Amino acid sequence: MRTLIFGAGNLILTDEGFGVHCINHLEENYVFPPEVELYDGGTLGIMVTHKIEEADRVILVDTVETAGNPGEVFRFEKEDIMLNRLPVKLSPHQIGIQEMLFISEMRGACPDRISLLGVIPSSLDPGSDLSPVLSECLPRVAGLIVDELRSLGHEVHARN
């Protein structure tokens, strides 16, 4: 089973880049088997829909706008996303996750198993570093992903 960890976001708007920072954190701190792909989707949106379509299982990481406090993590499954129960994507310039999945669904290529780990941002100011709140949150979200991959039978090891 091929699993894709897809980090979305804009690295020049502080916390909006959380998904990409998460991919970088995972690459720096863990070793993954060949059937697990870490992918920096950045702000490419529809241009990288094919990456989702190539996987059997997808875990998306991004920021979401929803009630709660900065740093809170929410999990949404494919049904939540497809039935419009997902908070609005924060990046006004990019196509949203829902649109990416709808396109894949229309092409008959959308994986059945898709999850989104959405984090509430603290700042969307210009800057390349995460806010302190999301910097503290990053290892926890990475740990959730690693735990899930291990529960799916993937051998993930911490780097020495």
UniProtKB/TrEMBL annotation:
Record-annotated membrane-spanning stretches: none
Keyword terms: Aspartyl protease, Hydrolase, Protease
MF annotations from Gene Ontology: aspartic-type endopeptidase activity; endopeptidase activity; enzyme activator activity
Superkingdom of the source species: Bacteria
InterPro entries cross-referenced by the UniProt entry: Pept_HybD-like_dom_sf (IPR023430), Peptidase_A31 (IPR000671)
SUPFAM superfamilies, A to Z: HybD-like (SSF53163)
Pfam families cross-referenced by the UniProt entry: HycI (PF01750)
A biological process from GO: protein processing
NCBIfam families: hydrog_prot (TIGR00072)
Family from the record: Belongs to the peptidase A31 family.
Name used for this protein in its record: Periplasmically oriented, membrane-bound [NiFe]-hydrogenase maturation protease
Lineage: Bacteria, Pseudomonadati, Thermodesulfobacteriota, Desulfuromonadia, Geobacterales
Protein's gene: hybP
